[in-house]
């Protein structure tokens, strides 16, 4: 899932540098930081939220989570 999310975010932002800047990394190191995320797939929740936003799938995730929550807890 994380691989696909990163690929979509890269496609939407156009380059690793643009994605890195969007994620809040300094422009000078943006590509390097994105490469580390791709290699390690180890990042904070803040970066995950920004990746979801960059990939333009945040709303879909929210709907899926809400539906699952309602299915479980709506009794």
Largest sheet: none
Helix content: over 70%
Structural class: mainly alpha
Kindly provide the radius of gyration, computed on alpha-carbon positions and rounded to a whole number of angstroms.
14 Å
Outline, from the CA principal axes?
A: elongated
Strand content: under 5%
Sketch the topology as an H/E string, one letter per element.
HHHHH
> End-to-end distance, in Å?
30 Å
Overview of the molecule:
Helix 1 crosses helix 4 (45-54) and helix 2 (16-22) packs across helix 3. This protein is mostly helical. The protein contains five helices and no strands. It is elongated. The chain has one domain (2-73).
Structure described in brief:
This protein has helices at about 1-15, 15-20, 30-40, 45-55, 60-75. With about 80 residues, the chain is mainly alpha-helical.
Salient structural properties:
75 residues; mainly alpha; 5 helices; 0% strand; elongated
Write the layout of secondary structure elements.
Blueprint: H1 2-13, H2 16-22, H3 30-40, H4 45-54, H5 58-73
